[in-house]
Amino acid sequence: MKEVLILIPAYNEEANIKKVVEKLINDYSEYDYMIVNDGSADSTLKICRDNGYNVIDFPINLGLECGVVAGMKYAYRRGYKYIIQFDADGQHLPEYIAPMYEKIEEGYDVVIGSRFVTKKKPFSARMIGSRLISGAIKLTAGKRIKDPTSGMRMYNRRCMEAFSKEINYGPEPDTISYLMKNGYKVEEVQAEMQERMAGSSYLTLTRSIAYMTKMLISILIIQNFRKKTN
């Protein structure tokens, strides 16, 4: 059995999903993959079924958190050693899975594909929120995560079990911070990312500000009232 499952949450990714999955199938067959179609209103599900892709289908849109948790439960029950969250829009590059695997094999619970391990984070309006979240994690968990909003994260079975059994676990920086506060080991490896191949991101300026505010409140305040995880 293969050790790594690539989890691909997908919502309205008809323009990208085939390119992303075909590259994995043709060039990275050492890994398994699973798409979670999150109630897409376009042809994402049809493309997956027409091409025989591995897919879990949600009949309605439940959000990224539910898709990732479903993938975690699937991977945990099937006995995978690691699971990696992988965007369906082509931003994440599969060549960085191998170095993430090598790092997590050193005994880490989570490894993040980070744009800023060996490269300096730019001083831009887009990165203000990232810097604030990095600072909040450093303040509360004792370690700075240089790219806290990166969605390319590899988790071990300990994390899969936690995501599967506990509530309020999501694929967000506040959960990473919370895990760190509870003794989980998190590390980053350098990874390049590219712009989405087609379509547009749901993160408008207003939504981005709301997201960053929510993360900061969760990291700095709400986590103090959550029960300790195992």
What do these coordinates show?
With 230 residues, the protein is an alpha/beta fold. It has a single domain, classed as Spore Coat Polysaccharide Biosynthesis Protein SpsA, Chain A (Alpha-Beta Complex), CATH 3.90.550. The protein has helices spanning 17-27, 44-50, 64-78, 97-104, 125-141, 157-165, 173-181, 205-220; strands spanning 4-10, 32-38, 55-58, 82-85, 110-114, 153-156, 186-190. It has a seven-stranded mixed β-sheet with strand order 3-2-1-4-6-5-7, with helices on both faces. Strand 2 (32-38), helix 2 (44-50) and strand 3 form a beta-alpha-beta unit. Helix 5 packs parallel to helix 7 and helix 5 (125-141) runs parallel beside helix 8. The chain is globular, with a radius of gyration of 17 Å. The chain starts with a strand and ends in a 10-residue tail after the last helix. The mean pLDDT is 93.
